Amino acid sequence: MNTSPWHFPRADFARSVLTLLMDGPIQGVSLFGPRRMGKTQFLLNDLAPLAERKRHRAVYVSFMQTGAPLALTLFELDLALKHRKLGRRLNARPGELKARFSLKAPVGPGELTVDLGQSPRELPGDQLLALDALLGALADPGHPTLIMLDEFQELADTENAELVAALRTALDKRRDGLRAIFTGSSVDGLNRVFSTRSAPFFRFATPVDLPPLGEDFVDHQLKAFGEISKRMLDREKADEVFERFERNPLIFQRWLMMLAVRPDLDEDGTLELVRAALAEELGFEAIWLKLSPGQRIVARLLAQRVEQVYGEEGRDAIATLTGGASLQTSEIQAALRRLRRLDVVDRWDKDWRISDPLIEAWIKERPAEELRL
């Protein structure tokens, strides 16, 4: 689906996931990966095209940027029934997605009006019936339809409980005709969906992790850079940049793209421009300004991967950052709660981590004067 020379295909991983879903005993897979590490690109450009080549319909729904997840899900399911190929739907979607649209009932007469501006509590219950009917129309026991639910942890809040329960019921009723993959960038959020005993999707999906990018990714990106710029880039420098930012593909690709279009800039100068542009684009400075010095220090400890935040290692790191000052345990706990509310940190296997690799790298490079108590 993606013909860009920058796209790095994860063909082997796509085949293993699709085989697990279509030929294995399971109906669902939950895919975890940190933010901006390529989960969405994998779904749209690797997994969906492979599924469609094998005659499975693919449906994509992202819950990251909508306040009306049920209405959006209905829209995407309805669009999937009208357009066979996902690529055509994605191209058509911006023009067709309106604040309000009418949805013809999949079975029987009548029409249902869906308002994308409605909050979940305002949505009429009939839309849950429409959800069930649309999934029923998409189900295909011969070639099961692949439902891809991106950033599914966004539905973990109680206000989306009816939608989550309805999705589980609809999938259970059509085990032969539907398969689902749920992605998430929050371990804690996914655990609330799939590991909480009282949750509708408790143990529904088999967890898999997005494989880390390695040397083959760097090789692919440098090849794309060479084809576009007609220049060679020092491999050692490329590896240094890739490792410096925790092997994050976004900042690495942005760096190469800017080098390709701005040959007047050197590697380090280009990297600084990219980092500043991403920090502004993603609002890092605005988040940082909301934090107290103590909260910034705790964020810095996590960015530096200090394992014992409350222990001796944490105390030593705080003293180094502050010039000898310390934080009480209660202050660290309060800082973690604040950082979590701002979506800066998350729980990873019972440990606290910065939730976004890009802001993690940005926090690590904040000057010492911004960390003084």
What key phrases describe this protein's structure?
single chain, 373 residues, alpha/beta, Rossmann fold, Arc Repressor Mutant, subunit A, 3 domains, 5-stranded parallel sheet, two-stranded antiparallel ribbon, 16 helices, 9 strands, 51% helix, 12% strand, globular
Task: Give a quick precis of the structure.
This protein is of the alpha/beta class and 373 residues long. It is built from 16 helices and nine strands.
**Strand proportion:** 5-15%
Low-confidence stretches: 119-124
User: Quick one: biggest sheet?
Assistant: 5 strands, parallel
Largest sheet, spatial ordering of strands: 2-5-6-1-7
Describe, in plain words, how this protein is organized in 3D:
This protein has 373 residues and is α/β, with parallel strands linked by helices. It has 3 domains: 11-209, Rossmann fold; 215-281, no CATH class; 284-371, Winged helix-like DNA-binding domain superfamily/Winged helix DNA-binding domain (Arc Repressor Mutant, subunit A), CATH 1.10.10. It contains 16 helices and 9 strands. It has helices at residues 11-23, 39-53, 69-82, 86-96, 126-138, 161-173, 187-194, 215-229, 235-244, 249-261, 267-281, 284-289, 293-303, 312-322, 329-341, 357-364, and strands at residues 28-32, 58-62, 100-104, 111-115, 145-150, 178-184, 205-209, 345-348, 351-354. Helix 6 links the parallel strand 5 and strand 6 (178-184). 36% of the residues are buried.
